[in-house]
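Next comes one such specimen:
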Amino acid sequence: MPLVWRQRPDIHCTIAGADMPESVLLLAAPGVEMIGPVPDCGILFDRTRLSIAPLRFGAGVKGKVLDSMAAGVPCVMTPIAAEGMELPKDFADATGETAEALAALIVSLHDDSATHARMARVGRHFIRERHDHARIIEALGRIAEDTRVKRQAR
């Protein structure tokens, strides 16, 4: 955030999450709010302009990135945070590897209302198309039926 604050000292940062290590808790300072675990991210996203997923390691689908998109909150992320999700091409615009790149993306996406609105729209559409519960259940039903048919054919 220091790189962001050099350009936009008014941007506020909220850090949420369970079991934060002492090293993270020590980051609390003016402009940084530490709130710990959040049982309902919707409440947090209602007051959030964008989220940040600066992951350096990890695998699979990153639930908080998807939660952010579902809430219409664009997410600035590292390639590791985007990994494994086949995100829309538009999200390449919100992905950076270095602290400098992430800071530039945070400021740009925070300040550019048109891009922010587009990313929010694309994120919500992506969730509806790829992660909707009804579609997932339907797909699982097709897989189960295909498996049943193949077993009967043996």
Remarks:
- The longest strand covers residues 32-36.
- The CA atoms of residues 118 and 137 lie 28 Å apart.
